[in-house]
């Protein structure tokens, strides 16, 4: 579980162009002698991440409309209302969005080798090796998205919809609920992949179904037999 930055305060909304020196003072390197340059850098990087977030959410809503899927539309609506842009500054995970939200979805946009500053995230990322995933920590879940040039609009949308379903699953539980068991987590994952498969089937039709069947057949033919103990 990753602790979100204590900078995640609640109040009025801000955007990159409204970031003030006082907002970033705590994150400015002690050796920095140019505070104006530092804040301009933060403003530019935060604005970039806001734009990346818009790209992902736009792709998500476009796919929801293409598939005419009610659940996808609901997740699109939820993400557009509750997604909060986060960015790494040094070893902190920071947002400058101060909206008062009951069920925010912190969205950490990761560029390049930024995971190097977060050993716990880097270790987990190496195991998952995906474009994005959700950390179900407290007080809020943290959605991590790696901005990669070769990720298509379709897969950007599928990523947000898959993890967005997990967000809904997370917030459907009582705040004092015990941690989920391995079986409960696995069942949630099965539901999310069934949802993903339904959307891809609507997009690809018979050609996609035929491709999936061929790949399953190939996998079954090539998989190593399970050892018996």
Could you please describe the fold and organization of this structure?
This protein has 229 residues and is of the alpha/beta class. The protein is 52% helix and 11% strand. The chain contains six helices and five strands. It has helices spanning 21-24, 35-67, 70-82, 119-128, 153-171, 182-222; strands spanning 83-89, 92-94, 105-110, 132-135, 142-146. It has a five-stranded mixed beta sheet. A hairpin with a 6-residue loop joins strand 4 (132-135) and strand 5 (142-146). Helix 2 runs antiparallel to helix 3, helix 2 packs across helix 5 (153-171) and helix 3 crosses helix 5. It is globular. The model is unreliable at 1-14 (pLDDT under 50).
User: Strand content of the residues, in percent?
Assistant: 5-15%
Shape: globular
Order the strands across the largest sheet as they lie in space: 2-1-3-5-4
Q: Radius of gyration, rounded? A: 20 Å
**Helical/strand content category:** alpha/beta
Helix content: 40-55%
What letter string, H or E per element, gives the SSE order? Answer: HHHEEEHEEHH
| Quaternary form | single chain
Number of helices: 6
Average pLDDT works out at 80
Tally of strands: 5
Poorly predicted runs: 1-14
Major beta-sheet overview = 5 strands, mixed
Termini separation:
34 Å
């Amino acid at each position: 579980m990753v602790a979100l930055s204590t900078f995640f305060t609640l109040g009025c909304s801000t955007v990159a162009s409204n970031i003030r020196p006082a907002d970033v003072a705590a994150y400015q390197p002690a050796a920095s002698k140019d505070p104006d340059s530092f804040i301009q850098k933060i403003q530019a990087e935060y604005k970039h991440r806001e734009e990346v977030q818009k790209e992902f959410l736009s792709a998500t809503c476009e796919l929801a409309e293409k598939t005419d899927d009610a659940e996808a539309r609901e997740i699109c609506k939820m993400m557009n209302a509750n997604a909060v842009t986060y960015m790494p500054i040094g070893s902190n995970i920071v947002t400058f969005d101060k909206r008062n939200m009951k069920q925010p979805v912190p969205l950490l946009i990761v560029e390049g080798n930024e995971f190097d500053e977060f050993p716990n995230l880097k270790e987990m990322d190496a195991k998952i090796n995906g474009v994005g995933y959700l950390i179900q920590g407290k007080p809020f879940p943290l959605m991590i998205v790696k901005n990669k040039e070769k990720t298509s609009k379709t897969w950007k949308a599928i990523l947000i919809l898959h993890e967005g379903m997990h967000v809904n699953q997370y917030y459907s539980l009582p705040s004092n609920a015990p941690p989920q068991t391995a079986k409960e987590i696995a069942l949630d994952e099965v539901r999310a992949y069934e949802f993903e498969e339904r959307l891809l089937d609507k997009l690809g039709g018979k050609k996609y179904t035929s491709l999936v069947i061929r790949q399953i057949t190939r996998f079954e033919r090539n998989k190593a037999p399970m050892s018996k103990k």
